Please model this.
Amino acid sequence: MVFFLNEIGDRRKAKGKRHSQLSTLVIMVMAMLCGKTSLKAIARFAKAHSAELNKYIQLPRKKVPSYSTFQRLSQRLDANQVCESFNRWMAQYIILESIAIDGKSINSTVKNANDSEQNFVSLVSFFGQKSQMIYQIGFLENSKDSEIHVVQELSSKILIKKAIFTMDALHCQKKTVQEIINSGNNYVVTVKRNQPNLHKAIAQKTKTKPLDAYSWEQKGHGHDSRCRIKIWEADDDIKNRWIGLKYYISVRRQGIRDGKPFDHTTFYISSTTQSAWRFAQVIRGHRKIENTLHWVKDVVQNEDGCGLVKPKAAVNMAVVRNISFNLLVMNGLKSISEGISAMGENIKTMWGMIFACKKAYA
Model:
């Protein structure tokens, strides 16, 4: 990881620059590993452990970076370079599995929330359903770009073949599925009424006998449901319009949620031929990006409450947050909150994780 961080260009002014960019970034990652979620908390962590940090990092006059140093660095790093560095680092860990794709806004960056000029920063993640690691990221400003475009670009670059990408209905776009197929991968995408012809075709098909079906039950906080998945071969005329398309899928969920009955059916399209049981695992696995990644980043790592309003700084800190998330997972700590507690602000342990992360995951 350190090798890839060192590739990021240093855009700080030479005058008054005391600490190396790499050592400052390493301290930020260490602080995130033990739950320091804001720049001020990172600065306090560095000051409290200055003597121990000096054993591993050559600190000028044995002084750690100040809060203003961390602040300036977060604002001046090139966010595109930081994301690319993260993606190159994680490319060496990718395994063949289903990958959930979704975007998450950073609430501290929201401006003009109640009018048409609303703007915010969103981070798009490619998240391994089995490994529970973030494999690839990109970002956008809502007023300048779209999540759809970012997903299309990242799908064309990811270094994996024969994986299944799962996405919500926002990404039910012909160009998106084409990029995924061109990259040598497959898709399972939710279909809603934003694609009326496709939605209608699937609804009609559900009146016929399916190729396969599978049922299961789900219980969780405030809900108890019965689910049934069915699959059909896609119609030839629709196949001609959606590259790679092979199957239609429907999932009906019935039960009680928050004390009220519900009965809801969701449609999907897929470019791969699997059993109903296998599709059920892939579709259920997509929720891990919300429950295992986004929820943790908000509640445990306090991403929305980080206090950073400038888009570039918020993205750069989000990437540092992702690095710490992946390092904990690589070392077998699937519960991020428990992993943070296990660190105990032990500089030696964290230093070993950062500089031997590939060995730790292997």
